User: What shape does this take?
Amino acid sequence: MTADKTENPTRYQSVCRWSFHPGKGGFVPGDIRPEFKDITSSGFVELVAEKIRPRVPENTRLGVAVHYDREIDEKTAESFAKALRDNGLVLSMITPGAHYYFAYGGIGSPDPDERKKAGEFGKRTVDLMMGPLKDVQDPACPAAFDIWNGSFGYEIPTVLLTDMLKYADEAIGELLDYARSKDPNVKMGVEPKPNEGHAAMLYQTSGEVLALRGRLKSAGHDVSNFGLINEFGHTEMAGLDLVQEYAAASLEDAIVHVHANSQGGDGVRLGGGGKFDIDFGVAPGATTLAIAQILNETGYAGWIEHDMQPRPYDSAAQNIDRVVRSICNWEAIARVVESGGLSRVKLESLASSRNMVEFEDLVRDAVADAHILSKELYSIGN
Assistant: This one.
């Protein structure tokens, strides 16, 4: 398979503001990329337009994702929106960064004052998304509202966890209703994670988010555009089956937004279950091909967000390069799926006859094809 000039569908792929910073610090350098030390969110938009867009496949529609209020707030929203308009980019996702302020459970906190303030923080994020950032979204693929915060957690297991879950459920239902009152078609989801920044989180797995969705529906909330925002690496951190989680969510039509990345442990990069949040870029593999095929079959046309981090030793140029490669990787994965190389007919024929050796070869060949195609796509932009 080659990166030919045949027409490909528009692919909505997103870049995260938090992927560009001078360094994390702590156990690794905090100043290895000084160019990004004082970068503003508007400057980040310009970086994406100037340094990334020319290097990705032509059918890529680029968006950007931000946290409220560390990366975007009421004071900077207008300049950020102007930068998006001036550079032909759009907002793909916004999430409340309540973990910067609430360390005792957030909307699930046993402290009623923290619960109240955390709930208000979420509503202010909605106001920003539906206000000054409303017209910098692509009508064909609007931005998603992502509910994830490191504040939604606990350390000591007691019966009070039932209260915390109830508080969080109620707050999310209230936030969903609030957002829908401003736009009935708003896309909102919960992003599960097993841990960080607490030993345990309130919504740890995709299955728990689907259960939450069912509880909200039973309580009378409209969940037609509410569901799962799954990050590949979070499921891998928990040692769970990523493909099974996407398959189950697809049966409920509950996939709202996708965070594509990797924990490693893929035969090339170390990592995997039980590791910290490594945030490698996405790469061709049997898992990513299967997810892409599930999304393709269910008609998912939302954002693929590259929630990733540079390596602690990367320069600014290498930081940018990793994002470009991740975007090219996903485009190659999607094209291999769309080519029919892993068609249901082929898969079902081999599976029904129990010919699993050829079945495995079929998948391995598709992974190899995606890797080769990605290198070709990358070379075109470089």
